[in-house]
Specification:
globular; single chain; Alpha-Beta Plaits; DNA polymerase, domain 1; alpha+beta; 41% helix; five-stranded mixed sheet
Length: 348
């Protein structure tokens, strides 16, 4: 019995709480648009902004075109992290057996504290009330027999929803939903499924008609996972105190640039930040990934792997700058964004 909690439009809702004058008006958190010429992307937005077809991940310049009268705010990560820690303490008052997957999202294993699904509903309702009373924020909660069903349930009646899906109802609950509502099914997977069925706007029911053998032939190992998920099966466990798999930083330039000095100096800065974060984790690194994004929003990456080892700035910079230079040589156009990420050793 799993409970999934998802804070509603988290960054934007926190900003509304801190500044009530923003409430009821389109609000976008991500970056300053600078009259339509801003850099970066939308981190989140409130529901008023979504009426103008603004969404997370959209270039901030496009969001401005959609709604120039919206309020645009920079990301205040320190504020959001503090609120997220407060919410974690509230969750811990309910159960210690939880997995925090992001600042605004967590899974709780409640089988030890919920005798039945009626009790689970009460737990979900009480959790929502505690967060509203202590943090003045709403959230959506879903309860199901596994993590996937609980997540779909929490997202099905946002904002401020509470949805309970009993095991006997799981299959019926998801069968008519869009295939994109199944966690792990992205646009590329959806497109390949559409090609198999020669049909668009696929539902879970549509994909259930594809045999396991055919899914395996197209998707390899992922085929069986897709086969199970469209039938409501998910065996993944709630893992408390889950270690991060990677740490990374990115920086978007004010203007697309070809200036090597500016690019290298910026790269050194973010490498120093990543190295410091990796040292604080006190874990071994197995790979380094460097990212470049062009002015056309094309993202290119280069990666190098090695035996797990503790890294410092010099090691990371020496390895990373070689990858960066390869990317700059392969892609001669102006650069919009650069980034670096380290992957931790799995058995660390």
């Amino acid at each position: 019995m799993i409970l999934h909690i998802d804070m509603d439009y988290f960054f934007a809702q926190v900003e509304e709480r801190e500044n009530p004058r923003f409430s009821g008006k389109p609000l976008v958190v991500g970056a300053e648009p600078k009259e339509g010429r801003g850099r970066g992307v939308v981190s989140t937005c409130n529901y008023e902004a979504r009426k103008y077809k603004i969404r997370s991940g959209m270039p901030i310049s496009r969001a401005y075109k959609n709604c120039p009268d919206a309020t645009f705010l920079p990301v205040n990560m320190k504020l959001y992290e503090g609120v997220s820690e407060n919410i974690s303490r509230i969750i811990e008052s309910v159960t210690k057996n939880y997995e925090k997957v992001s600042l605004d999202e967590a899974y709780l294993d409640i089988k030890e504290i919920a005798k039945n699904y009626s009790t689970a509903e009460r737990i979900g309702s009480d959790l929502k009330k505690l967060i509203l009373e202590r943090e003045s924020l709403t959230c959506s909660v879903g309860v199901g027999e596994n993590k996937m069903i609980a997540k779909i349930a929490s997202e099905s009646e946002k904002p401020d929803g509470l949805v309970i899906v009993k095991p006997c109802d799981s299959s019926r609950f998801i069968v008519s939903r869009s295939i994109r509502e199944i966690p792990g099914i992205g646009p590329k997977t959806e497109k390949r499924l559409q090609e198999i069925l020669s049909k668009g706007n696929l539902t879970v029911k549509d994909v259930r008609s594809i045999s396991k053998e055919q899914l395996n032939s197209v998707f390899g190992k992922r085929g069986e996972d897709i086969y199970n998920r469209v039938r409501g099966v998910d065996d993944s466990q709630v893992v408390s105190e889950k270690k991060a798999k990677s740490i990374g930083r990115e920086e978007t330039f004010d203007k697309d640039t070809l200036d090597p000095e500016k690019i290298i100096n910026t790269f050194r800065k973010i490498v120093a930040e990543v190295a410091e974060a990796a040292i604080e984790e006190d874990r071994k690194v197995k790979s380094i990934v460097v990212v470049c994004r062009s002015m056309e929003y094309e993202t290119h990456t280069r990666q190098v792997s090695f035996g797990p080892q503790v890294i410092d700035f010099d090691f990371l910079y020496k390895k990373g700058v070689r990858l960066l230079l390869h990317l700059l040589t392969e892609n001669s156009g102006p650069i919009r964004l650069i980034g670096v990420r380290v992957l931790f050793a799995v058995d660390d």
